[in-house]
Amino acid sequence: METINTSPAVINNLNQLLIDYQVHYQNLRLFHWNVKGPFFFMLHEKFEELYLEAAERIDEVAERILALDGTPKGSLASITERATISSSEDIADANDMVKAILEANSILVKNLTAVLSSAAEADDEGTLDIFTGYIREIEKQNWMLKAFLK
Fold it and tell me: Are 25 and 58 in contact (CB under 8 A)?
C-alpha cells in the first residue's frame, strides 16, 4: 500500500486556506442575512449559493489535511489568530458586500497559490488535482461580481 506524500508546508498552507475559508463563509452568511435594497432578491440568493459552496470547500480542505495526516485548524482561537480575511461587521450596502467578497477572493487565490506551489514542490499530485480548479472558479466568480458593480 502506497502512502500519501505528506509535507508540513502543504498542511500548513492548507490550514491557512481552511481558516480563511471559514471567515469567508461566515461573512457570506452575514451578507445573506443582512442584504437590503433593490437587488435584495438576486443577492440574497447569490450569497446563499456562495456560502453553500464555501461550506463544501471548507469540508474538502479539512478532509485533504486529514488525508495528509495533518490536523485541520478550526477553533475560534486559531481563526482569530491566523485569519487574513477580515471578519465583516455591519455592512449594510450591497455593493460593499460584493467588494468585500472580491477582497476575500483575492486572499483565497493567494492562499491557493501557496498551496499549489508547496504541493508541486512536494510532488503531491492529490492536492494539485483537488485545488487547481479552485482558482479558475474564483476568477469566474470575480468576473461576475465585478460585472455586477459596473
Answer: yes
